[in-house]
Give the backbone structure.
Amino acid sequence: MKNESSSDILIYIGNQYNPTIDHFLEEARNLGCSRHVYRYPKKITIGKSRAFLIHDTKKVIGCRGCGLSTSDVGLEIKICPKCGSTNIFTVMYTEPVIFAYYVIQAAEFIVDDNTKLPKDYEDKGVKPIHIDDVVKKEHLRGCGRRKVGNLYLVSYPNDPIVSLNPTVPYVGEHFRGIKYIEGEQIFNESKTLKQTEAIWK
């Protein structure tokens, strides 16, 4: 999925602070997204580039009656649409999946009275966010509060996160920071997987 000309990026969501995909999605919808990065990604375009998100926990819904199963994180199934059985089970297991994306609306650097916005960040349009004026008043996230001297790629609650339905398996090593990827390829893979699970609809 790597594409050196792409402005879309891939970010891992740790399950230490966000134990499930649903946990992260609820937080993102209420507070917006704010993902820490170690340096400003050179190829992103604010307001256009998308941050695709990976999580290791996967939800599987299945029918004990006929064996039909799906990995659609958005479904709450009580009756099997294939055989009519109510013997439905839900299993959570670890398998990396790309589950959602958000459009990067801003890059924010947390400052205080002693830590100022670096000049190269200022030239890129990064917003200085003062820890006393803003950060300490923010609702607490699963990963805690944003920290002075850190850079975050953000979206706001009025620019909601978009779930991929179904999720797309991620094949690769766990990584920190970001990777550049081709977003349209992820959409195409999700569309193909959706066609194979159409019976659930």
